[in-house]
Amino acid sequence: MIDLHYWPTPNGHKITLFLEETGIPYRIVPVNIGKGEQFDPEYLKIAPNNRMPAIVDQAPADGGAPISLFESGAILLYLAEKHGRFIPADIRGRAEVLQWLFWQMGGLGPMAGQNHHFRVYAPEKLPYAIDRYVNETNRLYGVLNKRLADREFVAGDYSIADMAAYPWIVPHENQGQDLNDFPHLKRWFEAIAARPATVRAYAIGEQFRTTPGVQSEEQRRILFGQTAASLDQGKPATAGN
Q1: How much is the pLDDT for 240?
Q2: Peptide bond connecting 8 to the previous residue in cis, omega within 30 degrees of 0
Q3: pTM tops 0.85, yes or no
Q4: 57 with 142, same domain?
Q5: How far apart, in Å, are the Cα atoms of 39 and each of 13, 25, 55, 221?
Q6: Positive or negative CA dihedral for 180, 184, 186, 187?
Q7: Average pLDDT of the chain to the nearest whole number
Q8: How far apart are CA 79 and CA 83, in angstroms?
Q9: How many CA atoms lie within 13 A of 170 on its CB side?
Q10: Residue 208 belongs to what domain range?
Q11: Burial grade of 113 (CB within 10 A; 0-12, 13-18, 19 or more)
Q12: pLDDT for 220 beyond 70
């Protein structure tokens, strides 16, 4: 059994995509990031970066004590290796998957995340920041589109590299991107969206989605206003601290 500490964000969706594809038993433990639950001291024991998702594997392969992991890319890799699914066994295929997994973790996710922040959430719309991240997101879409010109999925067969990238393409409109500009990417996107496991994973996310976006200044402080002191105190910074 996997305990999945989760909220329906792109990084959260990555893990439900994998779990729904494989049918591995799991239990969702909601972490409402808008309420600051990611700063709970008990949660920080398994996710010291106070972000989600995180997992606790109650039945690791070595038969020992439960294993906890944070960082969505590390979780995908751990689960893929444990179950021998969605990552090739051969050295060349594995290398292909890993480089594109890390491409998403180091490029597409952070750049699209900053794109969302400055276009959608920032109280002050800064043209330089918006242009910077919209343009870089566009470049990364172009990289992915070119990669997909001669293959069905990012690394050949469907893999954790696709599961990592897909949720960051879902909000393409909020990123100022038009999938019609990227025909190979659009074909890939539509193919993954139609997978039954993808449909199930996103339906699960809707069960936990409450109000859209950032609804208050307190939520803004919780999501975007944290410092090292927040971690030391074991609680998010709010108007009173």
Answers
A1: 40
A2: no
A3: yes
A4: no
A5: 20, 26, 16, 13
A6: positive
A7: 91
A8: 6
A9: 20
A10: 2-85+199-233
A11: middle
A12: no
Do both 98 and 39 map to the same domain? no
Q: At what angle do helices 72-83 and 160-169 cross, to 10 degrees?
A: 150
- Whole-angstrom Cα distance, residue 36 to residue 40? 8
Cα–Cα dist 26/8, whole Å: 16
Residue with token string 């991240």: 133
Residue type, 159: S
pLDDT of 239: 42
Tally of domains in the chain: 2
- Residue 94's nearest CA partner among 6, 146, 160, 151 is 160
**Per-residue model confidence as pLDDT tens digits over 172-205:** 999 999 999 999 999 999 999 999 999 999 999 9
Q: Is residue 240 part of a domain?
A: no
CATH at residue 206 = 3.40.30.10
Structure-block tokens of residue 129:
């920041």
The model's pLDDT over 97-107, given as tens digits with 9 standing for 90+, comes to: 999 999 999 99
Query: What is the three-state SS of the chain?
Result: CEEEEECCCHHHHHHHHHHHHHCCCEEEEECCHHHCHHHCHHHHCCCCCCCCCEEEECCCCCCCCCEEEECHHHHHHHHHHHHCCCCCCCHHHHHHHHHHHHHHHHHHHHHHHHHHHHHHHCCCCCHHHHHHHHHHHHHHHHHHHHHHHHCCECCECCCHHHHHHHHHHCCCCCCCCCHHHCHHHHHHHHHHHCCHHHHHHHHHHHHHCCCCCCCCHHHHHHHHCCCHHHHHHCCCCCCCC
